Structure of DeoR/GlpR transcriptional regulator:
Amino acid sequence: MHEIERHRVILSEVEARPIVTVAHLADVLGASEATVRRDISFLDKQKKLRRVRGGAEAINPPSDVSLLGRPYSVSQTINMDIKRCIAKAAVDLLSDNMSIMISGGTTTAAMSEFMRGLKLQVLTNSFSIADQLIKKSKCSVTVPSGKIHREQNIILSPFPDDISNHTYADVLFIGAYGINSHGVMETDPQIVQAVMKLINRADQRVLLVDSTKFQNRSSMIICPLSQIDIVITDDGIDNKSKEVIKAAGCRLIIVEKQKQ
């Protein structure tokens, strides 16, 4: 990522929450922590943010704090060809008149492109998925009540009892920030809570992750791998990760990366 673009993303992150860490920015930018520290130092001298120990904060801290993790707009620029292949493989599992739930994310959002010819009952907390399906499909679409988080393009309810507690589906599709032997991981507790509401409300649970997610780590666990029925990923997955998935009893579907 070019320096100017890195600075834009850093300022966007700082404006979205009170304090951002160097580690978080390195993950969002796909850059080294040393590069991030230099960028923070430069922006601090420009008086566009304030450098603090281990990170940076806004000159005027936000009153409305956003979710942790990469903004949706940034995630959309990463591995999208692979994510589309994974999404197509997920839609290949479906047929007309099925009921499904789809949790928000850029990989799951790519499913909407391939669902246009299907008649499905869909519950999703993804504003992007709902918008695409309403405009370009025959699907019946339901969204939960709650707050729209613009940076993540997701709708999250602050209440323990919402429509997700009164819905059951044939299949639940979810993405993840990371995955390993400990389970399926996300970065924000609100997202973890939203997915946990759905995890036991479907006959089958399908996880969509590109192979880079097997290197990501977080302290926030959605569920153990044993609760996932199918994992769809690309052929960049390493043998150790394959064994972890199979040991958990998951069916593994591997899609080939598109030739450039």
In short: The radius of gyration is 19 Å.
